[in-house]
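thread from #wetlab-drylab

HS: before we spend reagent money on co-crystallization trials with 2-acetamido-2-deoxy-beta-D-glucopyranose, can we at least see a predicted complex? here's what I'd submit
DV: go for it
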Amino acid sequence: MQQLRCGTAAGTMLLAVLLLVSSAARAHNITKLLAKHPEFSTFNDYLTTTHLAPEINRRTTITVCAVDNSVMSDLLAKKLSIYSIKHTLSLHVLLDYYGAKKLHQITNGTALVATMFQTTGAAPGASGFVNITNFKGGKVGFALQDSDAIDAMFVKSVEEAPYNISVIHISKILPSEVAEAPTPSPSEMNLTGLMSAHGCKVFADAFQASDAAKVFQENAIGGLTIFCPVDDAFKAFLPKYKNLTAAGKTSLLEYHGLPVYMSMSMLKSNNGVMNTLATDGANKYDFVVQNDGEVVTIQTKVVTAKVTSTLHDEQPVAIYTINKVLKPRELFKASPSLSPSPAPAPEEEKPADAPKPHSRRHKGTTTPAADSPEDSPSDEDSADKTADDTGSAARLDGWRFVLAGISGLAALLLL
Ligand SMILES: *[C@@H]1O[C@H](CO)[C@@H](O)[C@H](O)[C@H]1NC(C)=O
Ligand SMILES: *[C@@H]1O[C@H](CO)[C@@H](O)[C@H](O)[C@H]1NC(C)=O
Ligand SMILES: *[C@@H]1O[C@H](CO)[C@@H](O)[C@H](O)[C@H]1NC(C)=O
Ligand SMILES: *[C@@H]1O[C@H](CO)[C@@H](O)[C@H](O)[C@H]1NC(C)=O
Ligand SMILES: *[C@@H]1O[C@H](CO)[C@@H](O)[C@H](O)[C@H]1NC(C)=O
Ligand SMILES: *[C@@H]1O[C@H](CO)[C@@H](O)[C@H](O)[C@H]1NC(C)=O
């Protein structure tokens, strides 16, 4: 809560905090790091083309296993789709920090490390894990978990910024049939299966049982973004869901989809009103996407949900998890009981919902007058509370509110 006191203190202090935050925000840039080493230029180009670079920059405590240009040309000679290349390269991003020293100190000789591929939803079982072996004599080998042989050897350290990012040179591509497999066409994607397998089973079950599934599947071809509430949130909401008419249920589910593909970086840079799959006519079933630094929120007139993770992101389909069910004002009344106090105490549930200096700065398509009273914390009925963030997250929201007018970057401190 030190930050909170800061936030209420003099402007100079705020500036100091801000400077701190913005330097943290630029912890590393893989494109720039690799640009110093022309032998990895093809690998570097493909990190950009596949949009893996921003994913790498967003994370800390990672290791990028780079391969040189000749090894990359062998991979490219296979004429894989860009998605298969992305999967393959994401197997070369280890979700832990391994500098040269740590590689040579691996306890008991081997370590099993998750890769970015494991987080994509495209990696069945443990196909996204890499086994690092520290051999006697100082050699270090890399193998996919189910490989019989060592697939690649450690060559040298390229860049190290402990413990944020390590870039190492390895001799070969880690050859994964799973990663290289052609990705199913979007129309064949099993949306329900994908959501079920990643913490949104309750939502997926409701979805499967409704008419909405077909609408989503049809949109998956041209562009689709799904915000699926995590199981705790949708479970708590089930009594209300069951109370809706069949048409209401379909609209509610369709309200969780956008008829366009939005990558995480698009969500962050395209704030404003969005039409959903439930939208039928102007100002119906829409919501506001709003980011505050790295945090993206979806604001209906009834509830504000936070995007908590990326479950799938491959054009034309993106699926994100959110921490609350999106309740459209067309189906749920915004409770007028709470006053739109502009200065909420930090303990309040969601003070960030009060005045929003950043709102609608990009599109300005909503009527400001309609917002303030309804946007205030009105969704906190008992059912939703169970699905809410922890108290500490709520307090952090309070801190975010304090700095909201100064910089969205401040939110990074929360991560
Ligand atoms: C690691 O990242 C943090 C911010 O996330 C930054 O303050 C620090 O300087 C970075 N360390 C190195 C060695 O780059
Ligand atoms: C990273 O570095 C590259 C090359 O210097 C630059 O074009 C890009 O804008 C940088 N990205 C970020 C997020 O700063
Ligand atoms: C290393 O091996 C010893 C003996 O086999 C075992 O007790 C220990 O848990 C292992 N440590 C790690 C980190 O795997
Ligand atoms: C990792 O590789 C080493 C050496 O090839 C092997 O002995 C070990 O069983 C492997 N571990 C796993 C979990 O695959
Ligand atoms: C989709 O996945 C679910 C859960 O894994 C499974 O029950 C269902 O049969 C799958 N549907 C299709 C069309 O493959
Ligand atoms: C279901 O609807 C009835 C009638 O509108 C209402 O009284 C009841 O509170 C609703 N139940 C829930 C869980 O929303």
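DV: Confidence is low (pLDDT under 50) at residues 1-25, 337-415.
HS: ok that's useful, forwarding to the group
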